[in-house]
Amino acid sequence: MAGLRAFAATVSFSLLFALSPAAAQTPPAVESIQIGLSTDAISITAGFSGADLTIFGSLENPDPLVSRQGRYDVIVVLEGPPRPVVVRRKDRVLGVWINLESETFDNVPVSYSVATTRPLQDIAEPTKYKQLSLGPQNLYMKPAVETDSPATIEEFTAALRERKTATGLYSENVGGVQFLSQSLFRATVRLAPNIPVGTHKARAFLFKSGMFVKESSAQLEIRKSGFEQSIFRVAHDYSFLYGVFAVSLAMLTGWLGRIVFRKD
After folding, report:
1. Which of 76, 129, 181, 207 has the fewest CB atoms inside 10 Å of its own CB, making it the most exposed?
2. pLDDT for residue 12
C-alpha cells in the first residue's frame, strides 16, 4: 500500500511538472539578420560616374505578426575605409584668404552611404543612433587632440559632415530598403563618383518596434582597373622611384615647352 501511494505521488508530481507553464512553453526564437553581396570586389575606371549598389538580405526567425504590422525596420550602411582628415578654417586677412585654424580627426570613414526603410526619426529615438554611431549626423568623429573646447570641436565636426555631404561621399536614401516578403529585403546604396578605393564595409541593422535587435556585416573591395590601376600600384609600391620619375617628367616637359615656344 505504501508503494502504491509513492507511485501515485510520483505520477502526480510528473503531471504537475509537465503541465507547468515553464515546461510547456519554449523560449521564442530571437530574430537575426543576414546580408549578402553578389560580389566581394568592384573595379572602377577613371570615367566612373557613380552607381547604385544592391544588397540583399533576410530576417531569421521573424515574428509573423510583427512583419504583418510593419514593425520591422532595416538600416543598411556602406562605410568606407577610415582615414585621418584635417579640416581647416579660412579667414580673410588684409584681403587675402588664409588658413588660420585646423582640426585633425582620426579614423573618419571616407564615404558613408545609408539606405533605410523609413526616415530615421520614424524608426528609433535619436539617442539610439548616437549609441550605435549610425547615420551621417551621428557618426562619432574623434579629434586627434582633445585640448580644444567642445564648441570648437563641434564646429569643425559640423563643417566636415557638411563637406562630405556636399561632395556626395555622405548620402542617405530614405526608402532605399524594401521588403520583398516577410523575411527578404533589398537595399540600394549610392556609390559616389569620387568613391575612394579600399575595403568598404556593408552593415545592416535590424530594428523591431523602435528597438535595436541585431547587426550583420560584409566586406566589399573597391579598386581601380586598367591603366589607372597600374599607375596607382606603382605609386604605392615604388613611391620613391615614382616621385623621381614625376619630377623628371615635369622638368623635361618644361624644357621642351621652353624650346618650342622660345622667341628668337
Report:
1. 181
2. 47
